[in-house]
Q: What sequence folds into this?
């Protein structure tokens, strides 16, 4: 999975989900949704279509509503930059079952691969720490990613990881796009909707 320049995004997603157990997944706009779908579409995946900047807050709401379930938000650096204020709210509320993995390729992938602020000076892990998220990691190799993945089911505090990935585009594997279908399917996975 590793190279000196970064990691393959699909391999990173597979590693995060390989022992997911009861883990609920909220994905951000675009590539992280495609990565999760390529790993295997699952009713425990909630894909956000057209909700740029909203993944972390949706994940927070889910974590607060279901404290018995671990929740992972997987999003990109562009979306996280758009929703930085979410980190302040997450840091203040500090749910023990929420983890955020930002796939950072230092690019705005949805708008043409322009350089994002993380290419130069902005450290998303440092921002997370400044917002009160004590367990924030910069991840640049497979071992560190495996160590982070092992923390996901423990529900011992809010986690944040900035996962460095290659600035590459993988073939799109589109998950379902019907919002109503996704909502009802996800509610079934939570046990709040009958089959």
A:
């Amino acid at each position: 999975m590793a190279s000196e320049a970064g990691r393959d995004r699909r391999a990173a997603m597979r590693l995060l989900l390989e022992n997911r157990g009861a883990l609920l997944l909220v994905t951000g706009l675009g590539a992280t949704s495609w990565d999760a779908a390529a790993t295997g579409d699952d009713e425990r995946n909630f894909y956000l279509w057209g909700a740029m900047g909203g993944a972390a807050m949706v994940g927070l709401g889910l974590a607060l509503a279901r404290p018995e379930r671990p929740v992972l938000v997987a999003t990109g650096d562009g979306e996280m930059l758009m929703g930085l204020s979410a980190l302040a709210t997450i840091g203040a509320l500090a749910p023990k079952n929420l983890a955020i993995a930002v796939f950072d390729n230092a690019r705005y992938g949805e708008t043409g691969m322009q350089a994002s602020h993380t290419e130069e000076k902005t450290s998303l892990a440092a921002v997370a720490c400044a917002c009160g998220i004590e367990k924030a990691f910069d991840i640049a190799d497979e071992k560190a990613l495996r160590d982070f993945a092992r923390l996901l089911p423990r529900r011992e505090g809010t986690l944040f990881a900035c996962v460095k990935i290659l600035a590459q585009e993988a073939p799109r594997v589109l998950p379902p796009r019907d919002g109503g279908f996704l909502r009802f399917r996800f509610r079934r996975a939570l046990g709040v909707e009958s089959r």
In short: Residues 179-190 form the longest helix (12 residues). Residues 29 and 49 are 6 Å apart (CA to CA). Strands lie at 2-3, 6-7, 24-27, 45-47, 71-76, 98-104, 107-108, 114-115, 135-139, 159-164.
